AB hydrolase-1 domain-containing protein (Polarella glacialis), 325 residues
Amino acid sequence: MAAVEEICLKVAPYGHRVSAKKWGTLDGVGDNVVIALHGWLDNASSFDLIAPHLVAAGFCIYALDLPGHGKSEWSGMYDHAKMARSMHAFILAAGLKTPLLILAHSYGAQCAFALCAAAPSLVRRIVMLDEIGPPCRFAGIPESYLRGPSLEYFAAVAGITARQPRRLSSVDEAVSRRYKNHAPPYPKASEALGPPRWPLSREEVELILCERGVRRSSDGGAWEYSHDPQLQYDFSMRSGIPPLEVRKEMAKAITAQVLWVRTQSAREFLQFTYAADFTNLLVADVQGTHFVHLQNPEVVADLVHRFFQGDSSAGIPLEGAKSCL
């Protein structure tokens, strides 16, 4: 197993601390640097299984705990633009040379989309796992997906109220609660979006998602999830979702080479409508579901390695890809 180093940096302009797990060493010029960005309510450990394969291939991996997740501080600012600014600030604080490489999953891919559109020169190649960008408003998207949240949500946005972490009696309870989202029967929200997207074993939930995602409460009398409860208001999805035209312009602004690692659970109705607006997009269909990098790490690592090394055969152009599996 590749050695891992814990990193914690205070980033501007918000002043919060961002933690990360680092595998591997720099090659002297920084051309082998990969920034890895996890999904919503996950943490840097979601790359534990794929990182050793990439380190063996010569890459240096910085897997971030996005603000509000894992061991990073809670910033209270989780829309894609502010998350992109935090990622940019981490890159500067770590002294990493650009353009660099990005490996991003789900919500991390949404934030990376915003970063690459706002600062195209920062990134030369990016692999997006299962998702290639945020949702947008357009005809055909299920109304339930964009349904406005409750008054509690708006009070929280205004800073009038704040959801408190759920108190848990043990780590086992934390694992059991999280596992409910990954074991049959699948959540209704997932079923509404298509095939089950999140199946993981209890061991994967415990060792990968909860080991870094659960901590002692401040009074020491209970356990709690380490992510900011505000994230469960789902700011990025429900607050200011732009129209399709804006997403299309953002996709056009991304100059990095993009590989979309697509699974059976990819939400076509959310993303395929602006996929064609990417300048340089390849698609690789891989067996697996939303956590394909945990379920099939060797195959995904091989695709990532080849693509980052400039191998165009890692994927096929969008026009040649099937619209769904």
About this structure: The chain has two domains: 4-141+240-320, 148-237. The first strand starts at residue 4 and ends at 10.
